[in-house]
């Protein structure tokens, strides 16, 4: 569920975008968000995906059932999903933009802001990464 719904009961189209991002990550990774509950290293699927994004190991996220030949498409899906699950609804794209980013490889996808990663104790990093404007790549700059 979207953070704004959990904390304030607010629901909007951006809440649906958040849920879509979680669903997309669950499909790519092959695990439910709830499977991370009680995990010693990661509290949820989003933190797990963000950790791999920041570490430049996005390709390690994919479910083994997904074929290697589609790794660039998988990275693109992870990139879009991480934009969908931003804490602040204002930072999430709308569903039309999400659809366009997923179906058109020529569309430039914005950088994923450095988001909260919760490792046992909550830590917050509110800085953002540099822009990749003019680039059609979906690779993490660290990859």
From TrEMBL:
SUPFAM superfamilies: Protein kinase-like (PK-like)
UniProt-recorded Gene Ontology molecular function terms: ATP binding; protein kinase activity
InterPro entries in UniProt: Kinase-like_dom_sf, Prot_kinase_dom, Ser-Thr/Tyr_kinase_cat_dom
Region (Disordered): 113-143
Highest taxon listed in the record's lineage: Eukaryota
Domain Protein kinase: 1-107
Bias (Low complexity): 121-143
Pfam short name (any one): PK_Tyr_Ser-Thr
Coiled coil: none
Classification via PANTHER family: PROMASTIGOTE SURFACE ANTIGEN PROTEIN PSA, RECEPTOR-LIKE SERINE_THREONINE-PROTEIN KINASE
Protein name per the record: Protein kinase domain-containing protein
Species in which this protein is naturally found: Rhynchospora tenuis
Lineage: Eukaryota, Viridiplantae, Streptophyta, Embryophyta, Tracheophyta
